[in-house]
Here is the input.
Amino acid sequence: MIRPTDPDNYLGKPPGWPLRFLRLFVKKEYLEEIEGDMEEIFRDNVERVSLKRAKRIYTWEMLKLLRPILLKNMEGIEKLNQYGMFKNYFKVSLRGLMKNPLNSFINIFGLAAAIGICVFLYAFAQWTFSTDQFHKNKNEVFLTTFFADRDGSLQQYGITPRPLGELLRHDFAQIKKVCRVEDRSVVVKYDDHVFNERIRYTDPEFLEMFTFPLKWGVSSSLADVNSIILSEKMSIKYFGEENPIGQSILIRFDKDRSKAFKITGVAEDFPTSRTIDFAFLINFENFRTSDPGYNFHDWSRLVNATLIQVGHPDDLKSIERGMDKYRKLQNEAVKEDRAISSFAFEPLATLHKRSENIADDISRSSDSNYTSVLFLSIIGVFLLALACFNYINIAIVSAAKRLKEIGVRKSIGATRSVVILQFLIENVVITCFALILGLLLGWTVVIPWFENLWHFNMGFRLNDFNLWIYLPTLLLITGVASGIYPAFYISRFEVVGILKGSVRFGNKNPLTKIFLGVQLVLACIFITMAVAFTQNTNYLAHRGWGYNQDEALYAVVPDQQAYEKLSALMTRNPNVLAISGSAHHLGKSQATTVLHFPDREYEADQLSVDANYFETMGLQLEAGRGFNDYDGSDKQAVVVNDLLVKNMAWENAIGKLFRIDSIQYEVIGVLKEFHSYSFSKPVRPTIFRVAAKEDYRFLSMKVRSGSEVETYKTLQAGWAALFPETPFNAGFQEDVWGFYYQEIEIHGHVWRVFASVAVALASLGLYGLVTLNVSGRLKEFSIRKVLGAGVKNIAANIINQYLILFAVALTIGAPVSYILIKLLIDFAYKYHMPVTFWSVSIGVGILVFILLATVSTQIRKVVNTNPVNGLKVD
Amino acid sequence: MKKTKLGEFEELVLLTVACLQEEAYGVEIKRELEERLKEKLSVGSIQSALKRMEQKGFLTSAFGEATQKRGGKRKRIYTATPYAHRILADMKEIRASLWNAIPAVIGARLAHELKAI
Here is the structure.
């Protein structure tokens, strides 16, 4: 890196935002002097203390400058006629809050909880929308893709023919930069650190097209074939916190070929919202040494990605028009079934969104995050609505207590609009408190909770400009939405009626009931969701994979000799019941192949295995037989899964014929349904073939139940003795789905939290309503008690009011929840438990219990109070 | 003393302005006072004292030169008005007469104690 020589830059500039802040608030005529003073002091400080410290002093001093005498004219406000009135409104609101601590708590806490979740929502949306947006050239860089016809539908692929990159670079003046990307598995060795890693071969332009700044080193060094650039994570893995620049690291490409690379760069920590990154980067030309058979000009072979950068996004059209000649070249080189129909370019800026529909591209898909944002927004709006309903209900009911105040205000000249304004202001004050509390909640509780669940960092910052647009908008919407109806409602009453005492209202308002009803419906939906997702998590945890994953272990082997040595060693182990070698492995690797039928082409997954594989893994045959166990057997036989049979609409699959690469194969067996990858991925049509011994890359074992850990340790020890130079790469079969089970458990967890918040909000609202209702009828209940009413009578009296409401809400809520779970669970999971009314019943049961518990607290209060106290009022 | 309303800190700032003469602008005043008082002062406190005294008529000000170090911003040079000089002189006199009124022995002890603090 070149050190800036400009003295101004070298010394460092004061931070910009305090200055902008100052300009906003301080009187214009003072600005020049103060700015100058501050800058001068900053320069002095830079010479004395560290730049960081000087900046801190600068910022702090700026804040301390906000003194009344220096600020822009604020005294003008006092001259406003209404100033006194506004001041009074604030005072009245604050006093109101103090007077009814319970109601204030329900209102503020409820709103704060909802706002906290909205703040989290913002952070998550912000994180999602910023995916890959940190690349400076995101609008000029494009991934080359092609479309091809696969079994009747057009499929887009993110891989490209090998020679295309070089041709693009020479044939189009509009294309400024090109880089090819190929990933390979290698062994990386430094001192005694030996690990299997993925390494990325690419052109030096990679680091110019993508914005991955380096922490140490120079990015242009990638032009040298002996250089290697590491990600920060890898640098820490191999070298700790030390600067590894200049160190030499050994890459073993395969058994015979290895090369020492000099580390010339370490990337800065990647932003968390990215879909493309790397662990190790080396020059593409290294294929000449690492893989002498690598033909750069072979049109029938593909590279993982070819990216181009154009001068202007509009140049793309002319490039696309010129792509047809490559299509012809490509289609001449490959067989008919691999023919492509067109080339297309995908901009980097939106690649992560489109990635879901592009096969084999280097970018991860962010599709699920966008869906989550949508769902979370709906949840956020619902929770906010729940909190607003609480506020509205309590405001309407408690207005009875403020009738006199309104009467007096009106009689001394307040018009209706003034009263409305007063109530709205009151509301904004409450929402303001809620907003502050909510921001704190979101920042310190909800966001860390979510980040901990998923182990990532959303990069939420308080000094985010958009956040400060979002929050006031939220404040205004919530404040007005919750305040407008009570304000209109309360201000409607005639002065004479109020002061005469003939107006009685609050308890009979039908809207209160409707709001409460809607709350209950929402709470019902949330609870049912939580129940259903929790049940589904349990269900999936116990759902079988279609084979015996619990008692199987696997190990990755480099070649046939290694397989045979390891196999010989493990056969002697009494805990091992069966051993099998294979080129692919369930949940770890497979190939994709095209089956030719006379009338159609069909794409399927393919695994090459040996004769013992089905028995070792516990795969069950539905019809036919497995492979025979002697050399050269069943070379042209395949075993297929039942989905393939179903898709082919075969009555009897055994004996059916098809070709792969012009060799004819016969179906000899059909396997029952099994899941290679997690339940979140659909089962794909799959065929099994016999693997050639020299292709063995996996060793799988069936072990005696209960001896899994012990056998794993033996395997590890055996490996270390046999192959001290090769990293050990093995595992329990039940772990191959990675974090799948943790992930679905998190879904359940998230729903339970949201449901708790929703139920808490609804029951808080109900509690507030019942409390107000009961305290308004204290006299009545006291008289009833004096006349001999028992617990039953009083309980019936209180509950009766709500009984119909509960019944109506639940009869609407239950079927709605049922339909919604069906929709949502179908959407979220490819394979899930059968949805029954059972989850809804549990949900409704929990809700009814909570409602009754809430109401009964008030019944107890009435029953336990002395009727004399109730009658003494007034 | 009655209507002058010159606070203790303001008085110190005013005296500093008076002694710095043409050099009396924000940063220099702050530096000088910090040195004499042996404590850190914030720009805000100095500025608000200056502005207040300007409003009360103790100070006048005019733009001075701009330097590179100030990012090209001009200094504002403060000058104490004759009125301020009179008030300062008055106060000094009142204080001096009060000091003189303290009986000598007690005065010495008081001065000693003050030093100890």
The CA atoms of residues 272 and 457 of chain A lie 7 Å apart. The longest helix of chain A spans residues 416-454.
